[in-house]
């Protein structure tokens, strides 16, 4: 039991023994929130002479309120509880290039974020489509180029490209790149492909096992010549089959279904002919479907031509973006297999203008990067800037403090998406001022108006001038005998020409005199003959 009229429970009283009750009034004797009124009564105070413990009814209520508040706070979902250590960041569910971001090696975490652009999935619709790719299920009969032209017309964009031509009768995965994403077309055309084919054998075979073995033997590097109906030059080539397996065989109709994983440019039609030759019965391709092209397959948001048409209609009629955002995927989807290098925001625009990527702009980088390997340069928001060729290994990036990290192979991001951040240092500003005042040339050349302190920086050093003089002298010394030899050669040639000319003139003179001599000889002969007759 508690003390009657005080609101104090047994547990509170038990803490303070022996108990002395005294009464006092104070500002804390206000009505409690639970509706009890203690204005007309003096509030009891419990005290202990040996272990002082003073508690009013209001204090008890406050304490219970605090406990309830703490309980409600801990139940809240948005509460970050205080911890002694920093919790590990789980980025395994982050989208596209930001996936497993915490696993990248950190060079530095210090940079100035620039409020430009946005995450690939949060771009405005115009940019989202321009930087997008479509995993299209190509219909049978129209050619790949026709399909791509139709999509360009439906989406009303400037450029479209595809990841590798499919024959008109072939269906399946055709990656269509839109506008800026067309810069990745060549990389996708060279990526590996997977097909499911139906082969028709010209006569019966002993068993299904024989067909399965024949299909498995046709793996590795194979010689192929393009089929007669192909539009390319029919030249013998080598293509690699990575894996092939039989799925099903119908003995009655002599039809076999098999799956092939192969290099880009492999002709499955030719492979089916070779399969018939290996079995000794002959065969040809009945049907073909591409199930994977590069990193995108049948199950990766594949859409049909009708889906594209309907999505554009929804946006034009109802301004509903959700359908278009569903069928078009950001181009970063195609770059998820590349090793990543994270770039500071201040370095992005310089790379877009073609600058080499240097160490000061490096934030994070992937493991096991080798020199000459293709990597993707990305922003802290997960946008692809460019595809580059690494000039440093992972170990060198971690230890080196200067140098070229990567050379740009193909820029993806448009220029001036991020602001310029070069030429803003103190020296660059000084040079700009001097150029404006006319004290230095446009390209940093010294002129008559250049101050002495600046000409020391931009003019030639004495040492450099001396070195140049010495090199010029040595060049002159080396060139002197060469010049002499050339002069002698020239004189000899001129003498030969003169001698030849004189000889030609003499021949001409002789040719001119000879008829006169002949005439004189004839005259002499005639006169001699007449004298003899007389």
Based on the model shown, name its key terms.
534 residues; alpha+beta; Archaeosine Trna-guanine Transglycosylase, Chain: A, domain 4; Pseudouridine synthase; 5 domains; ten-stranded mixed sheet; seven-stranded mixed sheet; 14 helices; 19 strands; 36% helix; 21% strand; disordered N terminus
How many domains make up the 3D coordinates?
Answer: 5
| CATH domain class name of the largest domain | Alpha Beta
What fraction of residues sit in β-strands?
A: 15-25%
Structural class determined from secondary elements: alpha+beta
- How would you name the CATH homologous superfamily of the largest domain? Pseudouridine synthase
Radius of gyration: 45 Å
CATH topology grouping of the largest domain: Pseudouridine synthase
Number of helices: 14
Spans of at least 5 consecutive residues with low confidence: 1-52
Largest sheet: 10 strands, mixed
Shape verdict: flat
Task: Please state the second-level CATH architecture of the largest domain.
Answer: 2-Layer Sandwich
The overall pLDDT, averaged over residues, is: 80
Percent of residues in helical segments? 25-40%
Domain Dyskerin-like: 90-148
Domain PUA: 339-413
Family: Belongs to the pseudouridine synthase TruB family.
Pfam families: DKCLD, PUA, TruB_C_2, TruB_N
